[in-house]
Amino acid sequence: KQEVTQIPAALSVPEGENLVLNCSFTDSAIYNLQWFRQDPGKGLTSLLLIQSSQREQTSGRLNASLDKSSGRSTLYIAASQPGDSATYLCAVRRESGGSNYKLTFGKGTLLTVNP
Amino acid sequence: GAGVSQTPSNKVTEKGKYVELRCDPISGHTALYWYRQSLGQGPEFLIYFQGTGAADDSGLPNDRFFAVRPEGSVSTLKIQRTERGDSAVYLCASSPGRRNSPLHFGNGTRLTVT
Description:
The complex is a heterodimer.
Chain A: E1 4-7, E2 10-14, E3 19-25, E4 30-38, E5 44-51, E6 56-59, E7 62-67, E8 72-77, E9 86-94, E10 103-105, E11 109-114
Parallel strand pairs in A: 2-11
Antiparallel strand pairs in A: 1-3, 3-8, 4-5, 4-9, 6-7, 7-8, 9-10, 9-11
Chain B: E1 5-7, E2 10-13, E3 19-24, E4 31-37, E5 44-50, E6 53-56, E7 65-68, E8 75-79, E9 88-95, E10 104-105, E11 109-113
Parallel strand pairs in B: 2-11
Antiparallel strand pairs in B: 1-3, 3-8, 4-5, 4-9, 5-6, 7-8, 9-10, 9-11
């Protein structure tokens, strides 16, 4: 059974700092990995999706890397801003055949960026 | 365009009652998922629809939970004889159905069973 772990559970940083969020998964047979952002009382917003054949994806100040063989991904946020404060969730989609693309999520990292 | 819409946004019900939660996916999305998120946890898969059929309902916790998608668009998650442990945020997501498509989530329905 796939298990996804995110470290740290919570992180508080001053504005402007660069930071890294970590995600690990136990079964490396994944098709892709997705990073989401969740604001309080809201649903999930997709930030980056990395295919299993890719090493990284970038969007603005965000960069996500994937090391499939070691079961790890990182989300790098450059020059953090108070508006980045949210919970960040990592999720993996299994590789096995069929059309079910369900995701297995970690518990998330609660990020607070202080002005 | 409109995103995934879930109604109601909040639902408070008494233990033992029946509830229905509604999801309107993005137009044209063939795949629809229900997830449940308890406090401090990541979302957990409940059920997946491809078109009108439930292709995978392995995440439904027991037979009190049931979901339908009769016309391949709107879906309803139904919970019978609610229990306090059912309290959570129920999230709906849709996608075009291709394997490398990201999921688009709604804002969820917060269910509280008193």
